[in-house]
Predict the 3D structure of the following.
Amino acid sequence: MSHILLFSLTQVNLLAGNLTQAFDLSLQLIVKTAALEASATDEVQRRTGEQIFEAFLFYLRASTGEAAEAATPAEEDEEDDEEARQLARQLTRRQLLERLISCWQDQGFSFVHLESLFTRSLAKEGQLLQTLVLTLFKPDDRGEEEEEAARRANSPMLGGGGPRLVDLFTPEFCLRIGDTCVQEVGEEASKWMRKRHS
């Protein structure tokens, strides 16, 4: 597929709100562009990895666009709709992260480098920590048929017989993510308690 066509399809999917499809096309565009360079030096790989990660952050931010709007639940149906939208955004963010990890693994990039990119971005990206925790540590909420299909596919990204996503990262990184999550939850609980007693 030509670069112009990939770019156009990416834009169409982005405008249509198909973030995971747009991200997939962006990944293809980045990888194909990097392949045009004469040599696959460490510098080219590092730069390509950072471009892939920046694309991930862009789509992660785009997935929270509707979340910035204040919910005004006047009726029960609207509350249900907002909950469904939140779950859909959460699923989109999870799929984006799974695609990032899959692409990273396919390109043979260093997961230690990916860990450092995550660590540097945690403070700046509001949804990144939650997305990491839900994707790496929380079991997927699949039905029995989907679970069986995933097992048959033997795909680590789908929960099959390969390594789990969390196993691709160092134990130190996983502990750091867990500690950061516990710390943030504790801070939120403290804020809530102070507000309640004020």
